[in-house]
Asparagine--tRNA ligase
Amino acid sequence: MKKQTIKEVLKDYKKVLHHDITVYGWVRSFRANRFIALNDGSTINNLQIVVDFENFDEAIIKNISTASSLKVVGEVVESQGAGQSVEIIAKKIIVLGDNFTEELQSTILQPKKHSLEKLREQAHLRFRTNLFGAVFRVRHAVSFAVHSFFNQNQFFYINTPVITGADAEGAGEMFGVTNFDLNNMPKTEEGEIDFAQDFFGKKTNLTVSGQLEGETAAMGLGRIYTFGPTFRAENSNTTRHLAEFWMIEPEVAFNNLEDNIDLAEDFLKYVIQYVLDNCKDDLEFLDNRFAEEQKTKPEKERAKEGLIEKLQNVVAKRFKRVSYTEAIEILLNSKENKKGKFAYPVESWGTDLQSEHERYLVEKHFESPVVLFDYPKEIKAFYMKLNDDNKTVAAMDVLFPGIGEIIGGSEREARLDVLKQKMADMHVDEHELWWYLDTRKFGSVPHAGFGLGLERLVLFVTGMTNIRDVIPFPRTPKSAEF
């Protein structure tokens, strides 16, 4: 007999009504030695198992408690009680895994409310809670939708290297990779570490982006995307930073900045709509949680709309497209700026916008997602196309409510001479990126792309507020547990 998940049983119960079936799962609760709430992770909903304890060995009944794992054989019947459409009258129960009751008391599996901090400390168990079951099922749906969108639009999935000698961002905050004995590292005559003797024969790092390698693939395949882990050695303990996270980075030959903005908007709306269509139960649970959380905040800080309503509005509204210059004028003249309410005052054109500025534009001024474009060249990366004004680059950021920047991208600089000059101005080593420059020598074309951090999108879609709660095992400063 094919094993059925609880999700399948609840969805198509009419097919198995009055039939014996076998289900597996973990006990969420066991009431009155009669009613077991069984969950197997396939859905947020439990399946009720009705036990006639007179028909079962007392030893089996005693072994059934919260967190026990069971195999249950029984008849599917229409439920007589409220809260579920069907239940199973148990005919056979096998306890697959007992729990250690004394140790269970100190875990998050006990049916009581735990703080998110406590749940983080037991990340190996938090998948079994309703909250994190919902979060990680949604994360799966987002990831699946990413691949689905690009496949439907004739993009090719490219795996770019995790170990690299290139720094795409020029930030320098990279994790080094070495095969040296750290207690006995070879040195040059000048006293520097001699990376020529290392495994790769040069200094290498964990990647911060697959973009540069992705561009080379786009020059032959036309439309590509990467989707993989990236790393930042930024010593930051905020709710928005991780040392290891997942990035989605499309690159498209023959696209300009406007094409890039269109792609970003279409992509985000597709993924969010997919979640709305396929994660109804989990979203309803997260929406209720979001509403309860809002009640604990001061009224002026509460969200204007619920989680599901927010997602529906993002899909329905056209993103507002605003130049950086126009955005600066709005911010300079805002009451918040004039009254000193911004932690980082906006003083002039050229200011690098902070999250508070981005959220002001999205949440208060425009009340819709915003795409900012044409940023000052000094605050953007070397590979972004220089505009004709020689002051700005063809960059774009997509800003979302509650998040700020969710996508950053640009049209890439396709002109070899301009690119080389920008690299020199920003002290980017030409010799390290000789292969990148080659793509501008042999049939260079306009092309564009962007980067989206998966966790930021999952944060937005689930209504969670700490990025450590939307990745299974967060990596942060002084924390590499599990």
